[in-house]
Every structure is written in C-alpha cells, then in structure tokens.
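Record type: monomer structure entry
Structure origin: computed from sequence
Chain ID: A
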Amino acid sequence: MRVACVDLPALPLQLVWRREPELRAHAVVIIDEDRPQGTVVWACERARGTGVLPGQRYAHALSLCRDLRARVVAPEIIEAAIVELRTVLHALSPRVEPGPDDSPGTFWLDGDGLQRIFDSASAWGMKIMAAVTGLGLAGAVVVGFSRFATYAIARATREGITVLRADADERAAASAVPLARLDIDPKLRDSLARLGVMTLGQMVRLPAGGVLERFGRDAHRMYQLAAGERWDPLVPVAPPEAPDEHVLLDDDEQDIERLVFFLKSAIDRLLDRLAAKARAVTALHVELTLRRNVGHTNLRADVIKPAQPTLDARSLVRLLHLRLTGMPPEAPVHQARVWADDVAATREQLAMFAQKPRRDLRAADEAIARVRAELGDDAVVRAVLRDGHLPEASFGWERLSHVVQAKPSPKLVRPLVRRLHAKPQLLPPQPRQVRDDGWLLSGLEHGAVVRIMGPYIVSGGWWAHELHREYHFAELRRGDCLWVFYDRNRRRWFCQGAVE
C-alpha cells in the first residue's frame, strides 16, 4: 500500500452534471466562453458519438448535434472542486498531490505508514472511492507502487477500484494501457502510431536513445517513467485550512447576551466563507478561552449540531444561545474561536443564502424612527451633493427617512477621505520666513510642515462678494495631511479640513 491514484475523467463535465442532473440525458459540452466562436474544451460521450470533439468551435459542434447543450465552467468553480476533493482525500492520507492545471481531477495519495489504519490496500481504495462518490463524482481509483503506472492504469480503467498486489502486476497492467488514453502531444501519438506503437509496453520496447533523438525530451521522459528508469516522487501539497473566525474581546465578558452578540458576527463571517465555497454547516464548533485569574486560562469547547446542514445564521445563533444559557461559562470569556464541519450545500441552500440580505433594512428604518422620535426629525441626516462654488457649499444635509441598499461601484484605486470643517478654521499667523522651515499649523504634537503642495486657486463671486482662495495640501511631520487655503482678501490662512 504505497501509492493510490484517483482519476475523475472530465471533471468540469461532472461538476455540471452534479449541479444540473437533468443534463445527463443530453449531449453536453464545456466551452471556454459563451459565444458561437467559443472552443469546446470537454465533450461527453453522447456528444462525441455525434462527431463533436474538443477543439471544435461551438457553432460547428452545434451544426453536428442540434440538441447540444453547452455550459461554461469558471476556473474558480474547478479550483473550488479541487480544494473540496483535497479536503476529503487528506482525511485518508496526510500527503496528497493534485494533478496539473491542464488535467483537473487527478490526485495521488501516499499510503506509507497507513497499514495500522486500514486493514488492507483494498480497504484503503474502497475508502477513497467512497469519499469521491460521496461528493457526487465518479472515477477510477488505482492502488499500486509507482506514481506514473497508477496514473496510466487509472486513465485506462476510467472507473472502479483496481488494487495491484505486486510490481509485476503493475508493470503488466501499465504495459497494456493505450497511448490514446494518456495526455500526450497528439503529434507524438500519431508519429508513434505510424510505427505501430499503440501502447506503453510497445513504446518501452523501443531503444531509449532513439526515442530521445527522434521524439524529444518529453517523449524520452515518459519513456523513462514507463520503463521504471526515472524516479518520480510525490509532490504533496498542504491540507486546505479549515475556515475559522476569531473574536478577541476588549474586556472579559460573562454576560450571555453580550457574548452571543459578539459571537454572531463571527458566525456570519464564517457562513459567508462557507457559502462562497458552496458548503453548508453540519456542526458548529465554539471554543471559548476562559480567564480564571491573572495569567491562568483554560478552554471550553462546545459543538452545536443543527437538525440538517444549514447556512441559516439565526438558527445557529439560537442553538448557541440555548447552549450557553443552559450551561453558562464558569469564568469570564477572554476570546473565542468558531469553526465548522461542513458538507456540499444544495442549490436551494445557496439560493436562499444569496437572496438573504446582509442587512435588515426594515429594522434599520425602525431604529431611525426611534432616534427621530427621541431627538427630533433633524437628528438623522445624510449628505447630498449640490452645485456650489466653494467646498463647503458643494454638499448639504437632508433628512433620512428610509435606508436603501448600498450599491458601491468598484474602484481600482482606494479613494482618500477628505474631512471638512463645518466652518473654515482660522490658523494662527505665521511669519513668512518660517513657512518653509518650522511652520506650525496644528500644534506641537503634530509637528511642523515638511512639504506643501499647491496652490490650487478658487476665485469668483465678483457678482456678489468677490473671493480669492489659494488651496494647499500641507503634510506635517507626524504624517497628517491638512487642506489649507490662503484668503487673499482677508490676508489670513484657514484650515478647510484634512485628508485621510
């Protein structure tokens, strides 16, 4: 029990079938982009039976099969499925290697040291197959002795479990694998076919030097792997990190209501991360760090299990509240950690999670109404843009009666925040000779001006009250950036605001 290879043929197609089971009765292809000139990347057996092959344009494939169904599988979906597979496979082996990006769905598992966990290689292979089928996927599992041979045999068998008892059995099975089943260059495959070389065994019987000279390094490397002349070790990757959320309290907390309030935000963040991976919670783990006395803490672990996998934060928080109310912490809580056991979420769960608003706008309107009733109608306002010549006249305030869903536009550059004073603040007069060296605008604690940029002139108002302002951005030694202007008419400096 040394190496196991898991090969899931046409993984993107299987992901489409898992999401839309009704498509199994139709000819389906995966295209790289949703347009007539998109290229077919994967094709099911029904589509291949009508002459549709990878590499064809979607318009051409549609002309060959009138009832052809096409889907686009984003790379993020494939990557999420690979992470999902790695997670379940890492439970069966500490060392798992995923296949290359151009061959998704292939994995190798190292079986060294697992003899005391699994009774036999067959039992290990059955566990691996059960883990794969539990995700709604199908493929082949081959348990053998070398990385390349198990991969070749898995590609040839396509489905089921194969356990190789000895090196000789593995070499014999690998020798019978057709080259057409392997991901090799089509030109190399056709060149070998013209020589009558159709299987790996026939290729190994060729002279090694001739393969290198005639077909190149890639063909020679495959020759060495097939002949067992090249060491091909596993290159495992680290197990995917289980998503968890931490809560660090400013003050030790023992009140149950406040503690649940703090934990609710962590649960919401955890559910967001799980929903992005199309996962649902089967068990919620809550680990509380209790502070017994100065310098001494201990942990309390609770497991909350809903009736069925869920992404409903309210039900999880309600169950957690019941647990903490019935079994309150013995000491104040200093910090908490929340994580979950998860399974693949159903489409209905993901749809409900996506449709559920992040904020309850109705509750926000009720809160605003209570504030207005207590403090007056002008207690809650929002800023609106206005046509004004001066900065302080370019916006205004109006009463806020209803909260609307925010719709921020994506920004490539993070905007700076410019805070304005309700009225420009008069700055203390400074001698002209120190404005470039030691000019103090905001007290000693902020330091002197180290750089000033400007002027940016705003002038006008000749029809009523003429003004002339020269705006500057003044950077202080502490790092603050003030927005100041010089009023020519009043011959004084003023601070309009600051930039953050």
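Annotation 1: The longest helix spans residues 256-276.
Annotation 2: The chain has four domains: 1-6+75-241, 244-355, 358-415, 418-499.
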